[in-house]
Amino acid sequence: MQGFLRFAALSGRMTGEGLSIDFVSLLSLPRTGWNPRTSVITETQVRPRPFSDPAKRRTHTSFWFTAREAFGIAMNELRAHKLRSFLTLLGIVISTATLIAVMSVVHGLNQYIATHIADLGVNTFIMSEFKWAQGYEAWLKARRRNRPLTIEEFDFIRDNLLGYKHIGAAAELWPNPPAHYGRQEIEEVDLSGVTPGLVNIGQTEVEYGRYVSDSDYLHRSMVCFIGQDVVDKLFANIDPLGKEILIRGLPFRVIGIAKRIGTTFGESQDNFIQIPLSTYQKVFVARPQLQIFVQAWDSDQMMALEDEARELLRIHRHIPYHEDDTFAINTSEALMSAWQSLTKTIFGGAVGIVAVFMVIGGIVIMNIMLASVTERYQEIGLRKSLGARRKDIMMQFMTESMVMAAAGGAIGLIVAFLITALVRALVMPASMPVAAVVVGLLLSSFVGLFFGIYPANKAAKLDPIEALRMEG
Amino acid sequence: MGLELLSSPLQQPGVAPPDGVLIRTHDLWKTYEMGDTQVHALSGVSFEVQRGDYLAIMGPSGSGKSTLMNLIGCLDTPTRGEYWLNGRLVSELSDDELAYIRNKEIGFVFQTFNLLGRSTALHNVELPLIYNGTPAEERLQRAREALQRVELGSRMHHRPNELSGGQRQRVAIARALVNNPSLLLADEPTGNLDSATGLEIMALFDRLHQAGNTIVLVTHEHDVAVRAHRIIHIRDGKIDRDERTR
Fold this sequence. Notes:
The complex is a heterodimer of chains A (472) and B (246). Chain A has 472 residues and is of the alpha+beta class. Chain A folds into 2 domains: 63-114 and 338-468, no CATH class; 147-326, no CATH class. Helices cover 56% and strands 13% of the residues of chain A. Chain B is of the alpha/beta class. Helices cover 31% and strands 28% of the residues of chain B. In chain B, a hairpin with a 2-residue loop joins strand 4 and strand 5 (88-89).
């Protein structure tokens, strides 16, 4: 019977083109007992509706929708696998932390060196036997030809150099001697012989009492000017002025006390005793090796004054015109540039290490993302069956690896912050520049993005059927 | 007598079927290369499904019914032949276009539910809407409605592992319905459920069908198949029998 009806339908189709449609609907509709067009709909009508009108149809997915969904998924994944994520991110954490910490320390040191160490005083240069921070090879060479600066040379320059603002000289006793007052003792103290003019140039300022005077210098007086540490250690609760400190068995009367300077690299700068250079020559070293401090009136005069001083000393030493100096002139700029070339090397090394770490970190992320893709075949298949396009899946996994790496970067930032704080508290100055934070975070995110491409592409290319493994 | 005649001569390749026809396949072939030999998973399948019909596809494993299901679900494209879905020739669409069709036209219900384990029921139901860029408020609204439709309004914020098997499958059905697809495609929807829960789910399908949804069910359980109004039996990549049960 059914067969017959259908056959009849076929005949209808064969006899007239237009009829076939009606026959088909006639065939099926009465027999189902239900007509979608006429039946009373008891629940919310879900369908039928015409095929989506292309004009009204939404652009499939907007970028931000998927981005937000992808971000949510990424955060979920991170939360779901805390330990795994952390281990995965270790490489990124270490490299970001290293990068930011090194940048911070170098940055801090640069500032510190500029303000504390290279600050010889305004427009000041220092003549001495050796150039500072010149490297070992150059030092060895200089050691063979250079000669120490003597008091006669200082006198010669002082008397013949024209137009300086201040001039002074100092010689330091090595090794540092102990100092006593009564039963109190300092095991090691920086002892130097100074000329009276030095107080005008360096960091030393008089708190009370007075500095070494011309009279002290002329008479080779047994007097001393002391730093705050010496006051603390030898003269707790006593006024030090007029008291006598014993150094190598010789008594020196305290004539003045310096203002506190502070510490450099954790080492106190206040543990010093200064005596007149002439006294120093008399009682400690017959031929002191000097550093001569010369201060110009302004920066324009610096170069001229430097040349002037150089010529004077060359003349005094009878150095032929074609030969190099047998002494050195140090300036803050020279010191700073030497320092900066050093930090550049340090920084270059750090960047190399960080690059290697980053690549390793990136490969680890890639590896874990590949595992994650395999692990989530079904999820990928499901998402595809629900209408996710290749680029949606691609976006999901790339966002995931980027968020993961950025999280590693953020942890690295925190670690670097702690390291910086620790370094600052214990060893030396450090401060975190904004650039370091930005570079660290951007770089780690970029690494995540880059190493996420391959796994994400693999996920996006998955065949939804295979991914779903539908049973048949 | 010649049952295949029912469909094939009626169809005209290259011409869109009339509006009442939701699915029309014409001479569908799916061929896999296995080394040197060619395996025909489907060899010339042609049939039509009316809008509002309730169809079951039955067949033993290896019969090609899952291949057919993948083709109907736009997860795969045929080697040869035509497939019209809702007036559009989808057998020649690109990957992204297929994704669009899957999103708009098809609601999948799987044997293993395939819910995202770490997301709430609500978010699971929202997923298809996310992939077509529905704004957040509308998305939430529609996801809630869909969950209420399957009587899970009170369990929206539960995760799948806090739900029973039947509830999970209902969440999956809500997800399939949320985009108002023209076709509900269920693959062994009761395969992972005990018989009582299975009946519950089948009753839900009945109700959805009453409400006007077109349903295609792939199963090998006869008890499940007889709930449908029409059964297509597949064997060796061909339609073996096409019977209307009510």
